[in-house]
Amino acid sequence: MKKSLFLIIIAAAVVTGAIVYLNKQKTSKPYAPVTETAPAPSEPKTQEVISTPKPETVTAVVSTNPAPAPAPAAAAAPAAVENNSNDVTNSIHKIVDALLTARHGKHEMFQQLSKDQLEAVIADLQQRAIADPKNAEIPTTLGEAQLNLVRQLHESGGDQDQVGILAMQADQSFNAALKIDPKNWEAQFVKASTMFYWPPNDARDNEAAQMLANLIDQQDTMATQPEFAMTYAALIKQYQKMGKQDEAAATLKLALQKFPADPGLRQLATGQ
């Protein structure tokens, strides 16, 4: 019972964090939705056989030409099912390829996927992680796919234990990405920013604040990107959660100097 309650608490926290984070990334054109699998053709109707009365006298006729062999039964239905399966597999591969190469707009791409498609994307990414264990983008995207499935299951009233397990698996995926590439911006940001929504815990809260502060230092060595403002916003809210109002105010002041037009930072400045 305690384990189940723990998973529910963790799931609710991470779901909220995932939704808040993912709703911020809306810059690229959404990826075209995958075409649904075409239904298999219906079975042909059986032709009615009409019997004829047996004639009284039958004359035997011997022919030197063999009778034509009966036509083989059509195998169209199994072929169609196999083709449809291949089409779905190819579509999932293309979606995963697009997710791995996307730098913006992942949220829209994930939102267009159904539960079944998300599960297929997760399975594809898990296979790729085994085949290419040194590519940090794969576990990073896997973690985001798992968070999106968490969101869908949560919104549809899915099994809370499954939601909690998926949420923890997503966090493990980000850990795997950071083990490969400790400087991976996306994995650092998603992991640290969603920790804000976990229940208060001094050790975890300090870890989240330190991760975000380190990420800001890393950003200063990189070409400026609009999404970097989100790191400041996450750190400000983390400081506020921890009761460190002076640190939050100083971080907000610095953030507005670098990103004066960012709507998220301006909302924090007005207390909204």
Description of the molecule:
The protein has 272 residues and is mainly α. It has helices at residues 2-22, 76-101, 106-111, 115-131, 137-155, 160-180, 185-194, 202-219, 228-241, 245-258, 263-269. The protein folds into 2 domains: 1-24 and 80-191, Serine Threonine Protein Phosphatase 5, Tetratricopeptide repeat; 200-272. Helix content is 64%, strand content 0%. It starts with a helix and ends with a helix.
Could you say which structural class the secondary elements and strand pairing correspond to? mainly alpha
Q: Unreliable runs, pLDDT <50, ≥5 residues?
A: 1-12, 25-65
How far the N terminus sits from the C terminus, by CA atoms, comes to 38 Å
The helix tally amounts to 11
Given the C-alpha coordinates, what overall shape results? Answer: elongated
Beta strand count: 0
Task: Estimate what percentage of residues fall within beta strands.
Answer: under 5%
CATH architecture of the largest domain: Alpha Horseshoe
> What oligomeric state best describes the polypeptide chains here?
single chain
Order of helices and strands: HHHHHHHHHHH
Provide the helix percentage: 55-70%
User: What is the CATH T-level topology of the largest domain?
Assistant: Serine Threonine Protein Phosphatase 5, Tetratricopeptide repeat
